[in-house]
Design brief:
22-stranded antiparallel β-barrel, five-stranded mixed beta sheet, 46 strands, mainly beta
Length: 764
């Protein structure tokens, strides 16, 4: 189960928007003690700048694997967990939103139990006068995106809102087996009742989402790893505009639920549907006490997606027994490919209630979470061999006994299963205390009762693995054999989690001051972490995440600067890693539990040196390292991996942003964005790496009149051809062997190609 890592930052900016015409930017402030909310209307900064995916906000890394996607809608998780039901299938930053804000890590830890910068969004509920907006986006690859909202009032006591979001994204190439890389539609309809002279209101909002997205099926490509951290394109394959997904898209697999052989088409197993009803209530009493109660029920009868993976690219000979569809023997470059089919059903019932009161210099809050999450999920896996070409052909493998097949290794690589629920019942309290005009203290605590009841399959996977099978395991050290029937086992846990925070900000002068904070949050393994073999009773340990920050801030009429040193760590991180025997397509799945720590320094500045010009600049240096990270090699002749002290893969040590903008007139704005990601390691042993890269964006926004706004954006205007992420099949490759891979064919992820985008927004 692969969790998207989105919306993370440490003492850095986090940006999110849906369009050039309606966007919001956020900056971490010293002693960021309250949720920042800003209306999207009227802002013009295009910050939906992701060089990896056009339909998702970018991720700003801090050196830790994310806990989950942290996006909240009307005070509740937009999706409870994105491990199965992906966030982008049910939530987009679209015209339905009236406010989008940011919770600091400390605030998020207390309100939700997760340390992370968290997006906090709120629906448009309506107003007495009628308002409407239509946003339109397109690009030169044929992307079509339309979203609209209408809202208004009915009499003096009723408000209404309705929204439609439609995304038709073909990607930057034709996948052949599907019309769109992302086809998502989301509908909202809401009604609000005002009462008691508008001191209170009650809203009901219905939401329906339907989404098909190809995801990792089309996000990988082959390239030549030069050996010095750079890559170059292979002949006949253009990074970003050539497809590495098979043209036909048909496959066979063994259903992990019953062992039956089934067939399908990749484009047909990515469906997501969800129905949601939210009820929102808030009331302000005469003594200033504010009470809000937000609740929702969401049912997703389809929460499906497909993962693609790769292994080693090698030169096939006639002796390998590979044949094309026309019956001819194939010789040439091939790669062992892997596929996981994920099928889920998700339900959740969520409730959050808060009481807020200003008492002198104290701003007090008492909150309650009651979050219930039900999951019924399984996945099946299989392997295949394909040509290393655009629209690769799936090859037929003939075995030594004369049998032949295109697909094999059924359920050998981490097929998953879990069914059950988890429930969080939490009470939290915060106080924002303005001790003196110069000194501010913020502190809070959270206590959470966590219960999980899950069915898991705690058996090592093998080829042909499925529920109901009987298998004999042999202990590699003792030679003893045991026979087990593969069936679910129930795991029930009752635990207490906690979180606490304390922050202090002191202004030494009217412009200069000091800030420091410390936060800690704990949790135990969640239900999705039991989908694999899961942690054993001995491995079931508390996950602890402490965050300590301290630094200075300076602000005057033309500069707002913050510089902070940060320490954050995570103990007992659970990860399911597929490892490959270097130089082969042989792979095994292993469960890992390890620690990570990161020390970093970040300086962020907002500069307005003269009228019309604005500059955002950010520099981060961090050193994320593994500890207690050990993989016992499952392959003969391959040494064990001790990654202690190694730099965490995929995460750069140096990050920089330079975002200048200039208003030629109050209605015409030019902007640029340069993002630098330093050297990143592409495997666990730090043997392979990618050089630092620039991700570039630029655009112009023109407010034609009070009704019409136009925009144009260029993505990757330097037209860099770069790779990112990990290199398939290189997990255990040692540094001594790295030199052998100079000018070697490999596969991995890549940057978005040069793209021209256009937008229009009509307000009426």
């Amino acid at each position: 189960m692969k969790v998207n890592r989105l919306f993370f930052a440490a003492s850095a900016a986090l940006f999110l928007s849906s369009s050039a015409a309606s966007a919001v930017s956020f900056k971490a402030e010293p002693a960021d003690t309250t949720t920042v909310k800003k209306e999207t209307k009227g802002e013009e900064r295009n910050v939906m700048l992701n060089a990896s995916d056009a339909n998702k906000p970018r991720e700003i890394q801090i050196g830790l694997p994310s806990e989950d996607v942290n996006v909240y809608e009307n005070g509740l998780p937009a999706v409870y967990s994105s491990a199965v039901h992906k966030l982008a299938t049910h939530w987009r930053s679209d015209a339905s939103l009236g406010e989008v804000g940011l919770m600091s890590p400390s605030e998020s830890a207390i309100k939700t139990g997760n340390i992370a910068y968290s997006v906090d969004s709120y629906s448009k509920l309506g107003q007495k006068e009628f308002k409407g907006v239509i946003n339109y986006h397109t690009n030169h690859f044929g992307w079509q995106n339309v979203d609209m909202n209408v809202s208004g009032g009915i009499g003096d006591r009723w408000l209404y809102t309705a929204s439609i979001y439609q995304n038709f994204d073909p990607g930057s190439f034709d996948p052949k087996f599907e019309d769109f890389s992302d086809r998502t539609q989301i509908y909202h309809a809401g009604l609000t009742r005002l009462f008691n002279n508008n001191r209170g209101k009650f809203s009901v909002i219905y939401k329906y989402s339907k989404s098909h997205a190809l995801g990792s099926m089309v996000n990988a490509a082959p390239f030549i790893y030069v050996g010095d951290g750079s890559v170059k394109e292979i002949p006949g394959f253009k990074l970003g505009t050539s497809s590495y997904a098979p043209e036909g898209g048909r496959f066979e697999y063994m259903d992990v639920m019953d062992g039956k052989m089934k067939s399908g088409r990749f484009g047909d197993v990515t469906g997501n549907k969800a129905h949601e009803v939210a009820m929102l209530f808030d009331y302000t009493f005469e003594n200033g006490l504010k009470w809000n109660l937000d609740a929702k029920y969401m049912n997703a009868p389809e929460a499906n997606y497909v993962d693609f993976g790769g292994s080693t690219i090698s030169e096939a000979t006639a002796a390998d027994g590979l044949f094309k569809d026309d019956g001819s023997a194939y010789t040439g470059l091939v790669e062992g490919r892997r596929t996981w089919l994920h099928f889920g059903k998700v339900q959740n019932a969520l409730l959050t209630s808060e009481l807020k009161k200003q008492m002198g210099n104290h701003s007090l809050r008492l909150g309650l979470n009651e979050w219930y999450y039900y999951l019924n999920y399984h996945s099946s896996s299989f392997q295949w061999t394909a040509t290393v070409t655009e629209y690769p052909e799936i090859l037929t493998l003939t075995a030594s006994d004369g049998s032949s097949s295109k697909f094999r290794g059924f359920n050998e690589l981490s097929p998953e299963y879990t069914k059950g629920y988890e429930n969080k019942l939490a009470l939290y309290l915060t106080d924002n205390w303005q001790v003196t005009p110069r000194l501010n203290l913020y502190y809070g605590a959270r206590l959470e009762y966590y219960r999980m009841s899950a069915d898991q399959i705690p058996y090592e996977r093998y080829s042909g693995f499925h529920i109901g099978d009987t298998h004999t395991y042999t202990n590699s050290e003792t030679g003893e054999t045991t026979t087990a029937r593969i069936e679910p086992h129930k795991v029930v846990k009752d635990k207490l989690n906690y979180a606490a925070t304390a922050q202090a900000t002191y202004k030494l002068t009217n412009h200069f001051g000091l800030t420091a904070d410390a936060t800690v949050a704990t949790r135990f393994p969640r239900i999705n972490e039991y989908a694999g073999t899961g942690p054993t009773e001995e491995q079931y340990k508390r996950v602890t995440i402490p965050l300590i920050r301290g630094g200075i801030f300076f602000k005057n009429d033309w500069i707002d600067l913050t510089s902070m040193v940060t320490y954050i760590s995570k103990s007992n991180n659970i990860d399911q890693q597929n490892v490959t025997n270097p130089g082969t397509t042989q792979s095994k799945t292993t469960l890992l539990i390890y620690n990570i720590k990161t020390i970093g320094w970040t300086t962020s500045a907002e500069v307005d040196p003269f009228k019309g010009f604005h500059l955002h600049a950010l520099f981060t240096y961090q050193k994320p390292t593994y500890s207690n990270y050990f993989i016992k090699s499952p392959f003969a002749g391959v040494p064990d991996l001790d990654a202690n002290g190694n730099i965490v893969k995929e995460i750069p040590q140096i990050l920089a942003e330079i975002d200048p903008s200039y208003n030629i007139t109050p209605d015409l704005r030019l902007w640029l964005s340069f993002r630098y990601f330093g050297k990143t390691y592409a495997n666990l042993t730090n043997a392979l790496y990618f050089n630092g890269r620039w991700e570039t964006f630029g655009g112009v926004n023109w407010k034609v009149n009070k009704h019409l706004s136009l925009g144009a954006t260029v993505v990757n205007f330097l037209n860099q051809k770069g790779a990112s992420g990990t290199i398939n099949g290189a997990e255990l490759l040692s540094k001594d062997e790295a030199s052998k891979f100079s000018n070697h064919y490999m596969s991995g992820n890549y940057l978005r190609p040069f793209t021209l985008e256009f937008s229009a927004s009509l307000n009426f």
